[in-house]
Queue: 2 jobs
Job 1
Amino acid sequence: MLAMDYRGPKRVRAVQKPMPEIKHPQDAIVKVLRTCICGSDLHLYNGNVPDTRVGTTFGHEFVGEIVEVGSEVTKVKVGDRVIVPFNIACGECHFCRQGMYGNCHESNTEASAVGAIFGYSHTAGGYDGGQAEYARVPYANVGPTIIPEGMDLDDAVLLTDVVPTGYQAAEMAGIQTGDTVVVFGAGPIGIMAARCAWLFGAGRVIIIDQEDYRLEFARNYSYCEAYNFKEMNDPVVFIKKTTDWMGADVVIDAVGAEAAGNTMQTITGRKLLLQAGSATALHWAINSVKKGGVVSIVGVYGPTDNLIPIGNVLNKGLTIRGNQASVKRLLPRLIEHVQNGTLNPKGLITHRMPLAEVADGYRMFSAKLDNCIKTVLIP
Ligand code: NAD
Ligand code: ZN
C-alpha cells in the first residue's frame, strides 16, 4: 500500500509499505478515505519530538471504512465508515472511565505522560498513523465512531482532532457569559477555538498571529477580531490596553512549541528531555490574562520548559489548564453541532491533494505557502 514515510527532519515521502495486519483480537483495519496534515505533525516533521523513528508513518487525523476486524471487535463491523479519534484509548482504565481518553493509562507502553496517539513517534506509543491507504486501529471497540448518514467525509475528518481540540480549548478555559477571550495562534486549532468560544458565551473574541492571511481567514470564519503581533510593540500591552488595563478573562494558547524556536534535546535515552528557551505565546498568555483568570493550553510543548513566568502565575492567582483533546468524549455533541450547522469544519479546508503528494503537502503547510490553512490528503 502507499503510505507516508518519515526519513528524518523535513524529509518525508510516499512509498509502498506492507499492508497493516491484525495483531490483537481488538484491532481493526481501516481503509483510509481522508487524512489530514496537522500542526502537531510539524513538530515531528521538524525533528522536535523525541524518538521519532525513521520509517514511521505519521497521521493521526483520518476517517475510513473498516475492512477487517479482530475476533473480539463487536462495536464496529466490516463496511462501517468511521471517525477515528487521534487518541488511542483502552476505554477501561482509571482515566478513560472519566472520559480522559487522551490520557489512557494502557495504550502507551512507553509510559510517558500522554496516552498513545496514531503516528506520533515512539514517545506516544509507536503506532503507525493514517497518512496511508490502510491503518491498524487498536482498541476498535472504543475509538472508532460511525460517521452519520449524510455527513461529508471532509467534515468527518476534522472531527478526529481539529474540532474537538478547538472545542476543548474553549471548554477548559471555563468561559463565562460576556468574557473577553484571547486566542494565540490562528492555525486550524486556534481558528476553531475562537469559533467555539462563542458557543460558551464569549462576549468578545480576539485572535493573534503573525500571518495576515490566517488573520483574515479567522475574521471571516470565527467572527472575531484578529491582529498581527508583528505590528504591535508588545502584545501584552496591546491586550491590556484593549481591556481597560484589566487583562483578558481567559487566554487560549493554540501555538505550542513552534513559538519557542527551540528543540527538545534528548539527554539520556529518550525519557529525560530538556527544552531550552522560552515559549513566547505562553508567556504572553500568562502575562496578558487578568488576575484570577484562566490560561488554557492546547498548543503542544515538550515535557519541560524552564522559563515559564511561574511567579506571575502565583501572584496573579491564575488557573492553568492543558491537555490533549479527549476526542471520544466530545464526539456526540460535536457531531450534533455539525449536523445542525453551528459548526462547519470543512470550511477550514483550503487544499486537497493525493496522498502521493504528501511531501508537497508538508512543505506547503510548514512554510505556510499558498494561503494554506488545512490540507486533506486523499489516498
Ligand atoms: P499551525 O502550525 O498551523 O498553527 C500555529 C500558528 O501559530 C501559526 O499560524 C503561527 O503563525 C502562529 N504563531 C507562532 N508563534 C506565535 C505567537 N508567538 N503568537 C501567536 N501566534 C503564533 O498548527 P495547528 O494545527 O493550528 O496546531 C496548533 C497547536 O496545537 C500545535 O502546537 C499543535 O501541536 C497543537 N495541537 C494540540 C492538540 C491537543 O490535543 N492538545 C491537538 C492538535 C494540535
Ligand atoms: Zn492533529
Job 2
Amino acid sequence: MSDCIFCKLAKGEIPTTMVYQNELAAAFADASPLAPVHVLVVPKAHHDNLLDGVDAQTLMAMVECVEQVVQRTGIKDSGFRVLTNVGADAGQTVNHLHWHVLGGKRLSDQLA
Ligand code: 5GP
Ligand code: ZN
C-alpha cells in the first residue's frame, strides 16, 4: 500500500506527533482532534480494517499502545473510549485500520 497515508505515518516516513510505538503498532495524534486527547492507534503493517486478517500479535501490540497512550496522556483513571469505524455506514475515511482513543472530557452518550 505505497500510497496509504497511515502506512507512512506509522513507519515514520511522514513526520507526526508520535505518542508511542512498538515493533508492530504506532500511536499518533489525530490531525483533527474531537477531544482533548484524540490519538489513533494503527498497525505498522497495512490492514484495511479490523476484519482484514489482523493477527493476534498485532492486536496485542495495538492494545499495548492504547495502554501507553492513556497512561502518558493522564486519562487512564478518568476514563476513555476506543472505537474503530469499518466501512461506509460507519464513516471510515482512511482505509488503514485505526483505533480512535478519545478522552480528556466527558464524552457524548451517543454512539450511533
Ligand atoms: P475515520 O473516519 O476513518 O474513522 O477516521 C480517520 C481519522 O484520521 C480522522 O479522525 C482524521 O482526522 C484522521 N486523519 C486523516 N488524515 C490524517 C493525517 O494525515 N494525519 C493524522 N494525524 N490524522 C489524519
Ligand atoms: Zn496503510
